[in-house]
Design a protein that fits this description.
The structure is a homodimer. Chain A is mostly helical. Chain A has one domain: Winged helix-like DNA-binding domain superfamily/Winged helix DNA-binding domain (Arc Repressor Mutant, subunit A), CATH 1.10.10.10. The first copy, chain A, is built from 6 helices and 3 strands, in the order H-H-E-H-H-E-E-H-H. In chain A, strands 1-3-2 form a 3-stranded antiparallel β-sheet. The structure holds a DNA duplex.
Chain lengths: ~150, ~150
DNA sequence: TTAAAATAAATTGCACACAATTTAATTATG
DNA sequence: CATAATTAAATTGTGTGCAATTTATTTTAA
């Protein structure tokens, strides 16, 4: 549902919200840094691995659509994951333009270790469970709108 | 109000929320890129300028506290703003450790041009005004908690 | 059917973002 | 009062993030 009001107030507040998003994302990701380092991942590598754990082996393009990153960012990130031994890269025979990213045994095993990562948030969330649900749903609603807005532009 | 529940659900959902924050912040900031480029700013430079417009001349440290960035990021950003002629940098006589960032005439005049920047969000916000208010308040509440949690740790 | 258009990755260049360290200045303390 | 501890910026090194371009491959169309 696209907002088409002429009211300027939402734009001014949206501008403030943009900064809050920017700052809050950075600060929350900072909480993850140390525990992720212990299992040998950066946050960007972590969300790529989570995508592979959840959806299985997939192309760079498909990963990019899930994590909102393009090949310019993903190629070096995935190459580092390969160097760490968590994934393998393989051109797809049916269409050599695609590179399939495949979890190795080591990458698959990492999933268990990574299951403790969300505990880093313990004591670092200052809104209630219901409020987390509310923010989560509204951000995803907005994100979906932006994504579809770009696709159809 | 620190959340101290043992319930694991909020951590799992918090982990998902972290990604939504990360993705939503990136996508919204992307909307700003072109209009900001027209007035000669990046998003990071924009939030530094907004801080100076709102609070007046201040030190690198004080800017950092407002925008959640350290001198490692701010020093090169501010040097670019200086090269563009929007600010001047000046050591404070009373305490030479501090560098005061001072708006130039050009930097002050930019405020008017920048007042049109939030219009970039027109047609790109897919939640209602009330929902924007809700997300904004909850993110700031959480951000405040994290900030105070770090200060007192 | 083959040259043009489209597509997926990779590459390039620029701008952060941040931890860790260094430098310079100020304050605290024995 | 002199040295140690602290503090603010700057520097260094690594890792994104993205627009624009390039390369390789596949699809479309004349």
């Amino acid at each position: 549902m696209k907002n088409t009001t002429n009211d300027n107030a939402i734009l001014t507040l949206g501008n403030e919200l943009c900064f809050s998003l920017y700052a809050c994302a950075k600060e929350v990701i900072k909480i993850y840094r140390k525990p992720l380092e212990k299992i040998g991942l950066t946050y960007t590598q972590y969300i790529v691995m989570m995508t592979l754990w959840q959806f299985g082996d997939m192309s760079v393009k498909d990963i990019g659509e899930k994590v909102y990153l393009d090949s310019g960012t993903l190629t070096p990130v995935i190459k580092k994951l390969e160097k760490s031994g968590f994934v393998k890269r393989q051109r797809i025979a049916e269409d050599e333009r695609f590179v399939k990213i495949i979890l190795t045994d080591k990458g698959l095993k990492l999933k268990e270790k990574a299951s403790t990562i969300p505990q880093a948030l313990e004591g670092n969330i200052y809104i209630s469970y219901d409020e987390v649900v509310t923010v989560y749903n509204l951000l995803n609603k907005n994100l979906k709108g932006i994504k579809e807005g770009i696709e159809t532009s």
